[in-house]
Amino acid sequence: MRKALFFKAGACLFLTCFIHSNVASVKAAETAEITENSLAGISVVMNQYYQEKLSESGISIANVATPIIVEGVKLTAVNGTANQNLAVANVDDYANIREEADADAEAVGKLYSKAVATVVEKGEEWTKISSGSVTGYIKNEYLLFGEDAQEVIDSTYERYAVATCTTLNIRSAATTESKIIAQVPVGEELDIVSILDEWVQISYEGTTDAYVSKNYVDVEYSYQYAVSKEEEARIEEQKKQAAIAEANSYNINNMVWPLPSDHNIYSYYGKRVAPTAGASTFHKGLDIGGKSGSSIVTVLSGTVTVASYSSSRGYYVEVSHGNGVVTRYQHCSKLLVSVGQKVSQGDTIALVGSTGISTSAHLHFSLLINGENVDPYPYLKAVH
Ligand SMILES: [Zn+2]
Predict the structure, then answer these.
(1) Ligand 1 midpoint to CA 230 (Å)
(2) Which fold has domain 159-221?
(3) What is the Å distance from ligand 1's center to 287 Cα?
(4) Cα 307 to averaged position of ligand 1 atoms, centre (Å)
(5) Which end of the chain is more exposed for a tag (fewer CB within 10 A), N or C?
(6) 253-383 classified as CATH 3.30.420.40
(7) Is 331 exposed, middle or buried (0-12, 13-18, 19+ CB in 10 A)?
(8) Residue that wins the pLDDT comparison between 248 and 306
(9) pTM for the whole thing?
C-alpha cells in the first residue's frame, strides 16, 4: 500500500522533537502558568513565548495560533495543521546534508526531493536539520518551510492510524453508542479521512462511515526521511545485487556457444594441474578446442571494452554485456573488433589461435560478474 522506501515514524516521535526543541524551554520558563486544565492559557503562553523569545530562531510565528491540545506536557498538532518545525527538500534529486554549515564540509547524508526533516535551528543561510538518523546542515535555498512545506507534505504523504490495542473497534459513527462494524488487531494500519476531537474517521473496506477512538490509535505518517551515508551505501549494494540477480535471470542464461565450429571442452573451470609453465593452477575459464583461424563469436550482445594483447592472455577481447556481466576470449590469432564497438550476440569477434601462455590452438573463455570470475559452464551447458 505504501512505498517501501518510505520510513515510517509515529506522530509521537516528531512531537517529541517538537517538545524538545521548543516547548522544553517554554516549560522551564513558564511552568508556573501551565496547568493541564488551562488550554486557552497554554495557547496564550505559547504565543507570547514564540513572539518574544523565538523570533530570532527564524521560525515563522505567523501561525502560532495553530490549535494545540494539551495532555500533560504532550502537545499534539491536530487536523494536520502546519507544523512549524518541519521542512522538506525542495530539489529535483537530493540535497546534501553537511556536517557543518559550510559547502565544503563533509556530507553525512542526503535529503531526497520532498523528504521531510525537523528544523533544529534555522540560520540566515543554513538550517540545522534532523531527519531519520541524520543530523546536519542544509542550505536554506534547498528547503521549504512552514506552510510551503506543509503543502508538499499534504500532497505527498499519507496519514494513517495504527491500532495500539489488542482489538480495535471500528464504529459506524463517532460515538461509543454506534454500531461496531468491524474489529481489527493491534498494528493494523487504517487510512485516515479526517481527525476529529476524540475520534479518527477512517476509510475502511469502501466506506468512510467508519470511526476509531483516538485513544487506541497512533497517527503515523508515510514520511520519507534523510538517508545517511551508510544507508546510501547499503542501498547501492542492494541495487548491485539486484542487477546481478537480473543479469542471472535472463541475460546470462541466453548465451550462445562461443566457438560454433568446435564444442569440445579440454579444461573446465576450477583447480587443475598447470598444463604448461606459467599457466594457472586454478583455471578461471573454459578451454574450448578449435582449429587455428576458426571463428569466435560473442555469447551475448554488448560493447567491446578490451581488444588487446597480453603476454599471458595473448590477443584477447572483452565484451561488456551490462549489469556487471563481462565475457573474455583469450589466445586469439586475430582480433576482428575494436574497443567501443557494439556487437550482437553471435557476431564473430576474433579467430582462434595459440598466443600468450598456451600449448595449442584453443579458446579460453571467461565469464566475469562485477569483476569476479565465475564458472561459465552452468550458463553454457544448455548450448554445449
Ligand atoms: Zn584456459
Answers:
(1) 40
(2) SH3 type barrels. (2.30.30)
(3) 5
(4) 18
(5) N
(6) no
(7) buried
(8) 306
(9) 0.42
